[in-house]
Amino acid sequence: MSLFWTTVDWILDHLTPQTLLHVILWLIGWFFVCYLLEFGVVYLMITIIYLIFTNLGKRKKGELSAYSMFNHNFEQITGTFDGEFYDNMLRRGGSSINKNINGHCICGSVKKYKKCCMKNHNINVSYRRNEQLLFLKTNNRFPKKK
User: Fold this and answer.
1) By CB neighbour count within 10 A (0-12 exposed, 13-18 middle, 19+ buried), where does 48 fall?
2) Residue 89, helix vs strand vs coil
3) This protein's superkingdom (predicted)?
4) pLDDT digits over 68-124, tens only?
5) 105: exposed, middle or buried (C-beta count within 10 Å: 0-12, 13-18, 19+)?
6) Distance CA 3, CA 128 (A)
7) Mean of all residue pLDDT scores within the chain
C-alpha cells in the first residue's frame, strides 16, 4: 500500500493543478466513450495524435533538421544512416575512399596525389583540387599525361 501513496505523492508534487484537471477530465471522457459509445480505441488514437502534434517543437536558428533535405546544402546530422554509408560498409568494410587518389598532386609535381608530399595535411579534397589548379594556372605548368 505504501507504493500506491508514494505514487500519488509523486503525481501531486510534479503535476500542476491544471494538468491534473486535464488528466482527470480525459479519463472521465475515456470512460464514457469506451463504455457507453464503445469507441475507446478511436478515442485513444485521437488522443495520441493530439499529443504528438502538440509536442512538436520549432527548430532553433542554426539547428540541423533530422531530415537532410531541409538543411542547407543537404547537410546530414551525425549518425545519419544513408545509402552511401550503407554501401560503403558492405563493400569496403567501412573505410572511406579518397576520391582524388589518382589525381595529380597539389605541389605541382607530376606525381600522383597518393604519393604527394602534401597529402598528409588536413585539407578538404575539393579545396586541395582548387589549390592545385590555381597553382598550375599561375605557374603555367600543367602535368603532362603519359
Assistant:
1) exposed
2) helix
3) Eukaryota
4) 777 777 777 777 777 777 777 777 765 555 555 666 666 666 777 666 665 554 444
5) buried
6) 66
7) 72
- Name the residue type at position 141: R
- Please name the residues in contact with 102: beta carbons below 8 A apart, sequence gap of 6 or more: 112, 113, 114
**pTM, full prediction:** 0.35
User: What CA–CA distance (Å, rounded) separates 127 from 130?
Assistant: 5
Lowest mean pLDDT among 3-7, 13-17, 42-46, 140-144: 140-144
CA-wise closest residue to 113 among 88, 92, 131 = 131
What 22-31 contacts at long range (C-beta under 8 Å, 24+ apart), as own/partner pairs, is none
